Amino acid sequence: MPMVKSDFWIFRSLEYSRFQNFIVSIIIIFLWVISYFYFHEIDYTALILNIICLIYLCIKIIPYTIFFKKEVKSIKSINPDREIKFVNANVLQHNTQYERLKVQLKQYNPDVILLLETDQKWKLQMEYLKKDYPFFIEVPKENTYGMLFYSKLKIKEEQIHYLVKDEIPSISCKLFLVDNYEIKLWGLHPEPPVPGENLYSTAKDKELAKVALDVKDNGLANIVMGDLNDVAWSDTTSLFTKTSGLLDVRKGRGFYSTFSAHHWFIKFPLDYIFCSPHFGFIKMKRLKFNGSDHYPIFTHLVYMPSLKTQQKREIDTENVKEAVEKANQEV
């Protein structure tokens, strides 16, 4: 069903569970083999179809395992001034366990913090950060799409965008490292395709396409982070990376599934950080439960524009054309 090119929620949401489907397929094949030894009968057509399904799912998810080549090169940094530590956390608007997050932020001491689903109460709780994070963008909202952004690094050209809908913000700014190296950063939390909220993924696809086209054209080192409400192996995320040229730090390292923190059997990677080839990878960690339905993600990168061995993603004109179409579609 996810292979059907439809924006309707049932087709897009079924992309999420491909790892779970992979496990189920293995169990079914194992049970069929066991039953064959007892009953000496098997439905070969169903078995072959299930094996094909298993191979297809494996191809989709294996890039996000240790058995695949790392897309962002691991680096032992020799220049701490160019290192950047990020924490990206969907806090769950109604979560009141503020101290759990505060402890995590103190422990990991990031340079950049992006908090999502933040309302006025969360804004007041995070006021203390401004002492150590003098640069910030605050967009608290009561509709679960609020954003709070804090940075130790100097920022300029900060903007609050409403790329698709008036009530769903995204943010962008330029971060400045030593020697005035510029980095363009986007913070995103697009609307998911779920019943009761939006039956179609059109809004999410449009927002990601617009950001991908900006990244492709701005000529800067780029970081895109946030809760994208999409899995890494979906067609939408694939189009995003193929259009923008950004790299996925997860590839070759693991799923780092961030949702749901409440159910062991529902685990999807929904919270991301993508980077341009200007960056090397130092560390990434999924942080512990802090009261939200998402786990926070800690990522440690180093800005190395002269990294000669870094893999660069070729931008395909057909993908760009598709992204332009999605960016211009009606919601």
From TrEMBL:
Keywords: Membrane, Transmembrane, Transmembrane helix. Pfam families: Exo_endo_phos. This is Endonuclease/exonuclease/phosphatase domain-containing protein. The chain crosses the membrane at residues 21-39, 45-67. Gene3D superfamilies: Endonuclease/exonuclease/phosphatase. InterPro entries: Endo/exonu/phosph_ase_sf, Endo/exonuclease/phosphatase. The lineage of its organism: Bacteria, Pseudomonadati, Bacteroidota, Sphingobacteriia, Sphingobacteriales. The keyword Transmembrane helix applies. Residues 92-294 form the Endonuclease/exonuclease/phosphatase domain. GO terms for molecular function: catalytic activity.
